[in-house]
Amino acid sequence: xxxxxxxxxxxxxxxxxxxxxxxxxxxxxxxxxxxxxxxxxxxxxxxxxxxxxxxxxxxxxxxxxxxxxxxxxxxxxxxxxxxxxxxxxxxxxxxxxxxxxxxxxxxxxxxxxxxxxxxxxxxxxxxxxxxxxxxxxxxxxxxxxxxxxxxxxxxxxxxxxxxxxxxxxxxxxxxxxxxxxxxxxxxxxxxxxxxxxxxxxxxxxxxxxxxxxxxxxxxxxxxxxxxxxxxxxxxxxxxxxxxxxxxxxxxxxxxxxxxxxxxxxxxxxxxxxxxxxxxxxxxxxxxxxxxxxx
Length: 294
Prior knowledge:
This protein is α/β, with parallel strands linked by helices and 294 residues long.
Protein backbone atom coordinates (compact mmCIF):
# COMPACT_ATOMS: atom_id res chain seq x y z
CA UNK A 1 0.00 0.00 0.00
CA UNK A 2 1.26 3.48 -0.90
CA UNK A 3 1.94 5.59 2.18
CA UNK A 4 1.96 9.31 1.43
CA UNK A 5 4.24 11.65 3.33
CA UNK A 6 1.68 14.35 4.05
CA UNK A 7 1.75 17.05 6.75
CA UNK A 8 -0.54 16.03 9.62
CA UNK A 9 -1.89 19.51 10.34
CA UNK A 10 -5.36 20.08 8.89
CA UNK A 11 -6.34 23.61 7.90
CA UNK A 12 -9.72 22.58 6.55
CA UNK A 13 -12.68 21.63 8.72
CA UNK A 14 -15.08 18.72 8.16
CA UNK A 15 -18.58 19.53 6.99
CA UNK A 16 -17.86 21.29 3.70
CA UNK A 17 -20.54 21.25 1.00
CA UNK A 18 -18.72 19.51 -1.85
CA UNK A 19 -20.26 16.64 -3.80
CA UNK A 20 -19.03 13.10 -3.12
CA UNK A 21 -15.65 12.44 -4.70
CA UNK A 22 -15.00 16.15 -5.37
CA UNK A 23 -11.43 16.67 -6.58
CA UNK A 24 -11.61 20.38 -5.75
CA UNK A 25 -12.13 19.65 -2.05
CA UNK A 26 -9.08 17.39 -1.98
CA UNK A 27 -7.04 20.00 -3.84
CA UNK A 28 -7.79 22.65 -1.23
CA UNK A 29 -7.09 20.28 1.65
CA UNK A 30 -3.67 19.35 0.27
CA UNK A 31 -2.77 22.92 -0.66
CA UNK A 32 -3.53 24.25 2.82
CA UNK A 33 -1.57 21.39 4.39
CA UNK A 34 1.43 22.70 2.45
CA UNK A 35 0.88 26.42 3.06
CA UNK A 36 -0.07 26.25 6.74
CA UNK A 37 -2.24 28.50 8.86
CA UNK A 38 -0.41 31.71 7.93
CA UNK A 39 -2.39 31.98 4.72
CA UNK A 40 -5.13 34.24 3.35
CA UNK A 41 -7.30 32.86 0.55
CA UNK A 42 -9.25 34.81 -2.06
CA UNK A 43 -11.98 32.93 -3.92
CA UNK A 44 -14.13 34.19 -6.83
CA UNK A 45 -17.45 32.71 -7.94
CA UNK A 46 -16.82 29.00 -8.44
CA UNK A 47 -17.63 25.64 -6.85
CA UNK A 48 -15.50 26.59 -3.87
CA UNK A 49 -17.58 29.67 -3.11
CA UNK A 50 -20.30 27.12 -2.28
CA UNK A 51 -18.13 24.30 -0.92
CA UNK A 52 -16.79 26.62 1.79
CA UNK A 53 -20.23 26.90 3.40
CA UNK A 54 -22.86 29.62 3.97
CA UNK A 55 -21.94 32.82 5.82
CA UNK A 56 -21.01 33.10 8.66
CA UNK A 57 -19.65 29.55 8.52
CA UNK A 58 -16.51 28.44 6.71
CA UNK A 59 -14.84 25.07 6.21
CA UNK A 60 -11.42 26.76 6.11
CA UNK A 61 -9.37 27.52 9.20
CA UNK A 62 -7.67 30.46 7.49
CA UNK A 63 -8.97 33.95 6.57
CA UNK A 64 -11.02 33.92 3.39
CA UNK A 65 -12.12 36.74 1.07
CA UNK A 66 -14.93 36.09 -1.43
CA UNK A 67 -14.48 38.30 -4.48
CA UNK A 68 -16.06 38.90 -7.89
CA UNK A 69 -15.75 36.24 -10.60
CA UNK A 70 -13.03 38.04 -12.55
CA UNK A 71 -10.93 39.38 -9.66
CA UNK A 72 -9.18 36.48 -7.90
CA UNK A 73 -5.68 37.60 -8.91
CA UNK A 74 -6.37 41.33 -8.46
CA UNK A 75 -7.86 40.76 -5.00
CA UNK A 76 -4.89 38.62 -3.99
CA UNK A 77 -2.49 41.30 -5.23
CA UNK A 78 -4.31 43.92 -3.16
CA UNK A 79 -4.20 41.76 -0.03
CA UNK A 80 -0.49 41.14 -0.61
CA UNK A 81 0.16 44.88 -0.90
CA UNK A 82 -1.69 45.56 2.35
CA UNK A 83 0.23 42.86 4.20
CA UNK A 84 3.55 44.16 2.89
CA UNK A 85 2.76 47.70 4.07
CA UNK A 86 2.15 46.26 7.54
CA UNK A 87 5.39 44.30 7.38
CA UNK A 88 3.58 40.95 7.41
CA UNK A 89 5.67 39.34 4.69
CA UNK A 90 5.50 35.83 6.19
CA UNK A 91 1.79 35.39 5.34
CA UNK A 92 0.96 33.51 2.14
CA UNK A 93 -1.65 34.97 -0.20
CA UNK A 94 -3.46 32.33 -2.22
CA UNK A 95 -5.77 33.09 -5.15
CA UNK A 96 -7.97 30.03 -5.59
CA UNK A 97 -10.14 29.79 -8.71
CA UNK A 98 -11.73 27.24 -11.01
CA UNK A 99 -11.06 26.90 -14.71
CA UNK A 100 -13.89 29.28 -15.64
CA UNK A 101 -12.49 32.00 -13.39
CA UNK A 102 -8.98 31.36 -14.65
CA UNK A 103 -8.99 30.31 -18.32
CA UNK A 104 -11.88 32.63 -19.23
CA UNK A 105 -13.43 35.24 -16.96
CA UNK A 106 -10.40 35.96 -14.76
CA UNK A 107 -7.59 35.71 -17.28
CA UNK A 108 -7.18 39.49 -17.65
CA UNK A 109 -6.56 40.01 -13.91
CA UNK A 110 -4.31 36.94 -13.80
CA UNK A 111 -2.26 38.13 -16.77
CA UNK A 112 -1.91 41.59 -15.24
CA UNK A 113 -0.75 40.17 -11.91
CA UNK A 114 1.73 37.88 -13.67
CA UNK A 115 3.09 40.72 -15.83
CA UNK A 116 3.70 42.74 -12.65
CA UNK A 117 5.11 39.61 -10.97
CA UNK A 118 2.90 40.06 -7.91
CA UNK A 119 4.09 37.98 -4.96
CA UNK A 120 1.09 35.62 -4.82
CA UNK A 121 0.32 31.96 -5.37
CA UNK A 122 -2.43 31.39 -7.90
CA UNK A 123 -4.04 27.95 -8.00
CA UNK A 124 -6.47 26.90 -10.68
CA UNK A 125 -8.35 23.77 -9.67
CA UNK A 126 -9.45 22.45 -13.02
CA UNK A 127 -12.64 20.40 -13.37
CA UNK A 128 -12.91 21.31 -17.06
CA UNK A 129 -16.26 23.15 -17.10
CA UNK A 130 -18.42 25.66 -15.21
CA UNK A 131 -19.58 23.04 -12.74
CA UNK A 132 -21.07 25.38 -10.13
CA UNK A 133 -23.58 26.89 -12.55
CA UNK A 134 -24.72 23.77 -14.41
CA UNK A 135 -21.82 22.07 -16.23
CA UNK A 136 -21.39 24.57 -19.08
CA UNK A 137 -18.32 24.30 -21.30
CA UNK A 138 -15.27 26.47 -20.61
CA UNK A 139 -12.09 26.88 -22.61
CA UNK A 140 -10.65 24.22 -20.29
CA UNK A 141 -13.19 21.66 -21.51
CA UNK A 142 -11.32 19.04 -23.57
CA UNK A 143 -12.07 18.07 -27.14
CA UNK A 144 -14.98 15.62 -27.44
CA UNK A 145 -16.50 16.29 -24.02
CA UNK A 146 -20.21 16.52 -23.32
CA UNK A 147 -21.44 19.49 -21.29
CA UNK A 148 -24.92 21.01 -21.01
CA UNK A 149 -23.93 23.64 -23.59
CA UNK A 150 -22.09 21.13 -25.80
CA UNK A 151 -24.59 18.25 -25.97
CA UNK A 152 -23.74 14.89 -27.55
CA UNK A 153 -24.66 15.94 -31.10
CA UNK A 154 -22.65 19.15 -30.71
CA UNK A 155 -19.84 18.13 -28.38
CA UNK A 156 -16.82 20.38 -27.74
CA UNK A 157 -14.87 20.37 -31.00
CA UNK A 158 -12.00 22.62 -29.98
CA UNK A 159 -8.90 21.68 -27.97
CA UNK A 160 -8.40 22.66 -24.35
CA UNK A 161 -6.68 26.01 -23.90
CA UNK A 162 -3.01 25.60 -22.91
CA UNK A 163 -3.10 27.78 -19.79
CA UNK A 164 0.29 26.51 -18.60
CA UNK A 165 1.98 27.73 -21.79
CA UNK A 166 0.17 31.06 -21.47
CA UNK A 167 1.43 31.54 -17.92
CA UNK A 168 4.96 30.41 -18.82
CA UNK A 169 4.98 33.05 -21.57
CA UNK A 170 4.74 35.69 -18.81
CA UNK A 171 8.18 34.47 -17.61
CA UNK A 172 7.03 34.25 -14.02
CA UNK A 173 9.31 32.39 -11.59
CA UNK A 174 7.26 29.24 -11.25
CA UNK A 175 4.54 27.36 -13.11
CA UNK A 176 3.52 23.77 -12.37
CA UNK A 177 0.87 21.17 -12.99
CA UNK A 178 -0.35 18.94 -10.15
CA UNK A 179 -3.03 16.34 -9.49
CA UNK A 180 -5.08 15.22 -6.50
CA UNK A 181 -4.05 11.68 -7.51
CA UNK A 182 -0.44 12.48 -6.59
CA UNK A 183 -0.63 14.31 -3.23
CA UNK A 184 3.11 14.10 -2.45
CA UNK A 185 3.93 15.80 -5.75
CA UNK A 186 1.20 18.41 -5.25
CA UNK A 187 2.30 19.32 -1.74
CA UNK A 188 5.97 19.49 -2.76
CA UNK A 189 5.10 21.95 -5.53
CA UNK A 190 3.02 24.17 -3.24
CA UNK A 191 5.82 24.19 -0.66
CA UNK A 192 8.28 25.10 -3.41
CA UNK A 193 6.02 27.92 -4.61
CA UNK A 194 5.70 29.17 -1.03
CA UNK A 195 9.43 29.84 -0.90
CA UNK A 196 9.68 31.66 -4.24
CA UNK A 197 9.10 35.41 -4.49
CA UNK A 198 6.92 36.58 -7.36
CA UNK A 199 3.92 35.11 -9.16
CA UNK A 200 3.51 31.35 -8.86
CA UNK A 201 0.87 29.49 -10.87
CA UNK A 202 -0.20 25.91 -10.11
CA UNK A 203 -2.67 24.09 -12.34
CA UNK A 204 -4.35 21.29 -10.34
CA UNK A 205 -6.28 18.48 -12.02
CA UNK A 206 -9.48 18.05 -9.99
CA UNK A 207 -12.12 15.60 -11.30
CA UNK A 208 -15.83 16.38 -10.91
CA UNK A 209 -17.90 13.16 -10.69
CA UNK A 210 -21.13 15.11 -11.22
CA UNK A 211 -20.00 16.88 -14.39
CA UNK A 212 -17.85 14.06 -15.74
CA UNK A 213 -20.54 11.39 -15.21
CA UNK A 214 -18.17 9.13 -13.31
CA UNK A 215 -18.27 7.31 -9.97
CA UNK A 216 -17.30 9.37 -6.90
CA UNK A 217 -14.99 6.58 -5.73
CA UNK A 218 -13.09 6.71 -9.05
CA UNK A 219 -11.75 10.25 -8.56
CA UNK A 220 -8.23 9.16 -7.67
CA UNK A 221 -8.13 6.37 -10.25
CA UNK A 222 -9.12 8.81 -13.00
CA UNK A 223 -6.62 11.37 -11.70
CA UNK A 224 -3.81 8.83 -11.95
CA UNK A 225 -4.96 7.59 -15.36
CA UNK A 226 -4.80 11.17 -16.65
CA UNK A 227 -1.08 11.13 -15.85
CA UNK A 228 -0.46 7.55 -16.97
CA UNK A 229 -2.03 8.25 -20.37
CA UNK A 230 -0.27 11.66 -20.68
CA UNK A 231 -3.63 13.43 -20.94
CA UNK A 232 -2.48 15.57 -17.98
CA UNK A 233 1.31 15.34 -17.52
CA UNK A 234 2.96 16.51 -14.31
CA UNK A 235 5.78 19.00 -14.84
CA UNK A 236 7.24 22.35 -13.76
CA UNK A 237 8.46 25.42 -15.62
CA UNK A 238 10.96 27.74 -13.97
CA UNK A 239 11.31 31.34 -15.19
CA UNK A 240 9.40 30.57 -18.37
CA UNK A 241 11.98 28.34 -20.02
CA UNK A 242 13.29 25.53 -17.80
CA UNK A 243 10.98 22.50 -18.11
CA UNK A 244 11.14 19.70 -15.52
CA UNK A 245 9.18 16.48 -16.01
CA UNK A 246 8.09 15.04 -12.67
CA UNK A 247 6.52 11.70 -13.60
CA UNK A 248 7.24 9.69 -16.73
CA UNK A 249 5.09 6.54 -17.03
CA UNK A 250 7.16 3.43 -17.72
CA UNK A 251 4.52 2.42 -20.25
CA UNK A 252 2.13 5.12 -21.43
CA UNK A 253 -1.41 3.76 -21.30
CA UNK A 254 -3.91 4.30 -24.16
CA UNK A 255 -6.39 7.14 -23.74
CA UNK A 256 -9.29 4.70 -24.05
CA UNK A 257 -8.62 3.56 -20.45
CA UNK A 258 -9.09 7.15 -19.31
CA UNK A 259 -12.05 8.07 -21.52
CA UNK A 260 -14.14 4.97 -20.84
CA UNK A 261 -14.45 5.80 -17.13
CA UNK A 262 -16.29 9.05 -17.86
CA UNK A 263 -19.80 9.29 -19.25
CA UNK A 264 -19.04 12.68 -20.81
CA UNK A 265 -17.02 10.86 -23.50
CA UNK A 266 -19.38 7.90 -23.99
CA UNK A 267 -20.66 9.17 -27.36
CA UNK A 268 -17.24 9.25 -29.06
CA UNK A 269 -16.55 6.95 -32.00
CA UNK A 270 -13.38 4.92 -32.49
CA UNK A 271 -12.22 7.44 -35.10
CA UNK A 272 -12.71 10.35 -32.70
CA UNK A 273 -10.87 8.52 -29.92
CA UNK A 274 -8.04 7.83 -32.36
CA UNK A 275 -7.85 11.57 -33.06
CA UNK A 276 -7.60 12.28 -29.34
CA UNK A 277 -4.85 9.66 -28.99
CA UNK A 278 -2.82 11.23 -31.80
CA UNK A 279 -3.09 14.67 -30.24
CA UNK A 280 -2.06 13.36 -26.81
CA UNK A 281 0.93 11.57 -28.35
CA UNK A 282 1.96 14.72 -30.22
CA UNK A 283 1.75 16.95 -27.14
CA UNK A 284 3.57 14.35 -25.02
CA UNK A 285 6.42 14.21 -27.55
CA UNK A 286 6.67 18.01 -27.51
CA UNK A 287 6.81 18.06 -23.72
CA UNK A 288 9.55 15.42 -23.59
CA UNK A 289 11.61 17.49 -26.01
CA UNK A 290 11.18 20.60 -23.85
CA UNK A 291 12.24 18.59 -20.79
CA UNK A 292 15.20 17.08 -22.67
CA UNK A 293 13.69 13.62 -22.23
CA UNK A 294 13.79 10.79 -24.76
